[in-house]
Amino acid sequence: MKILVTGNMGYVGPAVARYLRARRPDATLHGFDNAYFAHCLTGAPILPERYLDEQFYGDVRNMSLDLRGYDAIVQLAAISNDPMGNRFQDVTLDINQNTTVSLGRAAAAAGVKNFVFASSCSVYGIADGPPRKETDPVNPITAYAKSKIGSERELAAIDTDMTITCLRFATACGMSDRLRLDLVLNDFVACALSRGQISVLSDGTPWRPLIDVADMARAIDWAVGRPAGTGGRFLTVNAGSDDGNYQVRELAHAVAGRVPGTDVSINTSAPVDSRSYKVDFGLFRSLAPDHQPVVTLDQSIQNLVDGLKKMNFKDAEFRSSDLIRLKVLQDHMDTGRINDRLEWR
Predict the structure, then answer these.
(1) Following DSSP, what letter does each residue of 275-325 receive, concatenated?
(2) What pLDDT shows up at residue 75?
(3) What is the domain-level CATH number for residue 223?
(4) Within-domain flag for 83
(5) Cα(118)–Cα(110) distance, rounded to whole angstroms?
(6) How many domains does the chain have?
(7) Whole-number mean pLDDT of the chain?
(8) Residue 84 class from Cβ within 10 Å (0-12 exposed, 13-18 middle, 19+ buried)?
(9) Average pLDDT rounded to a whole number, residues 81-106
(10) Which residue has better confidence, 201 or 310?
(11) Using the 8-state DSSP alphabet, how is residue 70 labeled?
């Protein structure tokens, strides 16, 4: 099997490369990335790309790689969170949606069998009531979320026999060889270790579904080999687990329980945060019983604690460091390495 992973040098990619290599030792694994975050290594014993057979470098917006011969393509490349999406709205639409759809069409034309798109549960946006299923209305409220649902809809319209899987991932968390701390659980662990205090700016009641990056890799492994008979030629599926739905205050206290001496402060007088949604993962559970999440919340927290301690992490001002993706892009721009379209100069 020959697999291409685009955007493999970010937060999720290293876990995907490691898992695919372990599960598919005879596969040919290639990566394609423009290396914005290549230098953001966090204690990796070996370069994550060592698990690949070949690493290609370039911008997915003008990728010229010949896709013929690939059995599966995993599209991870994206402007990957709300702060970056809000700062670079036009670029987010271009990379996250337009490029994803162009890549999907090119893959179909090249005879690729499986196309896997890393979508997001953030498409549910403001969602009161019961956990959201794939058939429920979506309500994206950010550029990032809008680009994800826009990609899903355009991928669905491609006239092809290629099997397309859109994995609506829960919020990512956990340790990675290219760690990000601009994610809720990761941020809380960093605050606990560096400051001894977690300050929840909301009233703590919003719901967030979580999935560890290791379990994201498990889901991707399932999707790259998914036959069309399992879920249909085109499939959108929530990827996570029902017991991975947590309120923000639960996450804060869970972290404090793993880092003794941590004080938790919750702004109970804050307006209710409308970005709250629970998600139903029943379809994923029925279609992929052998690829269900196995990393518990406590394990994710402990892996982060262990990983950050191994890095001698003590930076109370980490939100201004290279562990925050928007800060990395801004530094590239400030030093003239990339322009405001996020293109290398």
Answers:
(1) ----B--HHHHHH-GGG-----HHHHHHHHHHHHHHTT---TTGGGSTTSH
(2) 98
(3) 3.40.50.720
(4) yes
(5) 21
(6) 1
(7) 95
(8) buried
(9) 92
(10) 310
(11) -
